[in-house]
Design goal:
- The chain is mainly alpha-helical.
- It has two domains: 138 residues, Hyaluronidase domain-like, CATH 1.10.3450.10; 80 residues, no CATH class.
- Helices cover 63% and strands 3% of the residues.
- The chain is built from twelve helices and four strands, in the order H-H-H-H-H-H-E-E-H-H-E-E-H-H-H-H.
- The strands form two sheets. Strands 1-2 form a two-stranded antiparallel sheet. A two-stranded antiparallel ribbon has the order 3-4.
- Keywords: Hydrolase.
- This is Putative metal-dependent hydrolase.
Length: 237
Amino acid sequence: MPDNDDDRGDYDLSENREALGAPTDVAVALHAGSALFNEGFVLAAHDPWEAAWLPLDANGAVDAGEYGDDERLLHGLIATAAATHHATDRNWAGAVGCAENAVDYLTPIEPQYRGLALDPVREWCRRLAADPETVERRGRPDIRIDERVVGFADLDLAATTVAAPVVAETVTSGEKGVVSAAADLAREEYGTGRSTIAELLFSFLQHPDSRPQIAARLADRVERAERKRRDVDDLFE
């Protein structure tokens, strides 16, 4: 989601439909995005939330005013990430506009929706809307799901395969392709007992100081898998 520095802090999500690829399950997106937010990848947290949100709006439900709670929740969290990012960058007008949008989307939802504690998120956005400089005095809150502050160590394989490429893109764009390919392989191998790539992805998220070395090992695994596929293809040519 590109930054938008206008006075209202608006943002256009529709332009990203094609770029995001396959939709993400809502529960998976909530955990992946919450972990990214809590681990300090605040703006990047919108990526999994947006990937799950866009299909809900695919038929113009937003324009028609036909909001489901999943759509409201995801849209509100996306706005929360944008508001927090703008406030951190001292873009006060953008922070206020996005925070007001977040409050509008999140207010009608019950306090514990899909296990996510919404009251602290709503209160944070209300504070940002009233006084965006609060980010410099109090810092951002953590997002809790099932009464737990979600971090990378709490993610299952599905959420890890969503969060890891986002971290790779944020830390160094050169690793995103490798980590995305590794995530695809981990999904393919799920349930087969071949867990090396999955374990490397968990480590990639949970051990930031070792990410370059882990990315290199993932690149090696991806290359091996691609070589095997080429060899198989050659057999049938």
